[in-house]
Design brief:
single chain, about 450 residues, alpha+beta, FAD/NAD(P)-binding domain, Elongation Factor Tu (Ef-tu), domain 3, 2 domains, 6-stranded mixed beta sheet, 6-stranded antiparallel beta sheet, 12 helices, 17 strands
Amino acid sequence: MTYNNEVMIIGGGLAGCEAAWQAAGRGCSVTLHEMRPLKYSAAHESDLLGELVCSNSLRSDDVTSAVGLLKEEMRMLGSLIIAAARKTAVPAGKALAVDRRLFAESITQALEKSPHINIIREEVSELPESPVPCILATGPLTSEAMAESLSKLTGEKRLAFYDAIAPIVESDSLDMDIVYRKSRYDDGPGDYLNCPMDKEQYLHFINELRRGKSVPMRDFEEVKYFEGCLPVEVMCERGEETLRFGPMKPVGLEDPRTGRVPYAVVQLRTENKGGTHYNMVGFQTRLNYGEQMRIFRLIPGMEKAAFSRLGSIHRNTFIQAPELLLPTLQLQKRPNLLIAGQLSGVEGYIESAAMGLIAGINSAAIAHGEPPAIPPPATALGALLTHLTSAAPKGGFQPSNVNFGLFPPLGKKMPKKLRGQARADLALAELRNWMRAQGINQI
């Protein structure tokens, strides 16, 4: 059965934008619905498509890492998100980070210029019953109305966890007599700014952090943080040394001016092309605004810090994917409805866009009356899909970033330092073969 090559997408985040790009590139007429600027979520600030709300980092760019491999697979498949990220990248050591504004503008302009994509600025509050293939990519901040509509369809009570945003500081408010530039283990000037602490400063800082007043939870809210994005004050509660072995780890960050390794370090990552703003790495928080300014100005070099954005916290919604989704991202109960992005149960910018990519490819196949397909399990894309549709069912499922633990065994023993390259070689070879079999040209 065909659907006149039409595809409907709800949500203009990373997943929705990537899905639109992929479907349009496969001969479909795409309608993309985005509620902004008529209505904003708790975290979004602009009406641009593909806006990043938590951080400007897309994590490691090394193909021997799981997320770096995922980026390369997406690039090979013509990813709009990866192309925009490369175009708007800012210095971030071995990571890929972007100028958020330019990144979102690049995505928005590309979609607006496409003759095959119609962008409608309106809220869709319930799932459509149209036979046209539809991708739900409303993201972790899915509205209550849409979440309720999805819950009614699936018969499953939705789950939620909490995600936190780190503050952004203006660079000209930093004391550069104290702050120094260095990337971890790099010999020369690096891409990160570092605020060093001695032991006394560190202990005073974490004591104040423990005493800090947080934004209270509402009565109906349940604390269920994603372990990979814990608020800094929650990490601090786990022990005196937790931050020193986490986001404030000083290893490899000796001060090039003195040669000394600090007791602890707060790192700042470039937020924009002009280098006028920096993101506090790993400092997502639910402290109230007054406490953030008071406590974070205890950090050496940040005594007079001016914040262009303070940290915040919001609820993220996801589905019980192993019970609800097919490996193609189609909903079992309604195969012409696909779930993409963080709503599907992945965690992270790149993972969300990757699921949008797969949903876009498969929605186009459905629209053309062809069978949808999934990449091999040895690829990063295939490993994520396997996690979504086979991991810990019956309420035990939790969102995950891509990692090599999701991949099938290599089948042979080798030194740990060689495994990343071996996995990358195997994954890329398998993806090339799959693309040839699917008639997809490699970029």
